[in-house]
Here is the input.
Amino acid sequence: MSEILTPGEVKLRDGRSVGFANLDVAATAPCLRVVADAVADLLPYYGSVHRGAGALSERCTREYEQARETVADILGHGPDDTVIFTRNTTDAFNLLARAVPEGTTVVAFDAEHHANLLPWRDAVRVPAPRSPQEAIEALARVLHGLKGRNVLVSVTAASNVTGEVWPVAELAEVAHRHGARIAVDAAQLAPHAPGSLAGLGADYIAFSGHKLYAPFGAGVLAGRADWLDAAEPYLAGGGASAHVADDGTARWATGPARHEAGTPNLLGAVAIATALRALRDRDLATTEQALLRRLRAGLAALPHVEELRLFPADAERVGIVSFTVPGRDPGELAVTLGRDHGIGVRTGLFCAHPLTRRLLAEATGRLESGISEKSEKSRRGAPDFSQSAQAVRASFGIGTTEEHIDRLLAALQ
Ligand code: PLP
Here is the structure.
């Protein structure tokens, strides 16, 4: 039995059925069977959290708080840290952005996903570096220039566009040396290396359950409690209020409750904790890196296909590869892959518009110059490069097989 829940076979346009090749795991991962089982086991007891007496409420409150402890444990938290359950990574960064003390300068690289770009108004934007080492040096320079200010650096751990892994532990070291804090977008690292999150040295970590094989609508913002305890509640309402006077003024709770107003997402929290427990000690990398090598080598062998990358080709990465196929409308290509080959991919700019546009332009330029160096004959057969305003992304994880990768390569061929 597969350890993830899959739809099994899907029908193709020509009437044949094939096993679905889910190569869009970075957008939303399938559900781990242990996660579905944990949720199903809890459902008969489903009741209110923090809001009632009786067997159901007691159990649900206990499970919710145990989920919080599991996350804290896996993140290596100390007494000054807290775990807040959010809706997703986007929600987590919006919450953190509201909790950052007045006068704090936020520093973010241009390469970020919108979730870690748009919540920061007036951030100092650092141009996207061309290597992990350049990222470390650029951050050190910027922080040196901001000496004397309160600074929060916010950075991704792994790119959702290129899969490239950022040197977060080193960036955290640089940040701390300069008296700054660092927030880490672990949305794409958590599903590939959940056991590594504790070693990042981050002051704050954000990630989403639905990318971590735990699709029940919850995410996490975890980290140092002081800013969060001092901030206005993210949502005003029940649960966040310790006392409300007759005139409606509230004294707010401290701790995670302050930012979890309203009835919390019990199933989402339990799902995340179950997934983290199941995956923390697993070697996910060996299979994934073999699939990654297979896919990248196959793509490199295809003329008119070019991979998007910010860092050098041999930089460390997770199972995410974006590429351009000039001359083919990416949306139409994705539909063809789906209907004729049973493959799911993503196309577009992947909610990282500045980065993806730039990498697309570079990749297209590399292809164009490669083709112009060839014969007149191949120039005449060259694709229309004006159509490559969007990229195609293949991403994978648990449940992906060599056959899925080979099927994509064959279809692209
Ligand atoms: N950060 C990264 C790197 C992502 O890949 C994503 C989603 O694709 C997000 C943040 C936002 O995650 P969510 O849509 O779950 O809020």
Q: What stands out?
A: Residues 374-379 have pLDDT under 50 and may be disordered. Residues 88-90, 113, 115-116, 156, 160, 185, 187-188, 208, 210, 351 surround pyridoxal-5'-phosphate (CB under 6 Å).
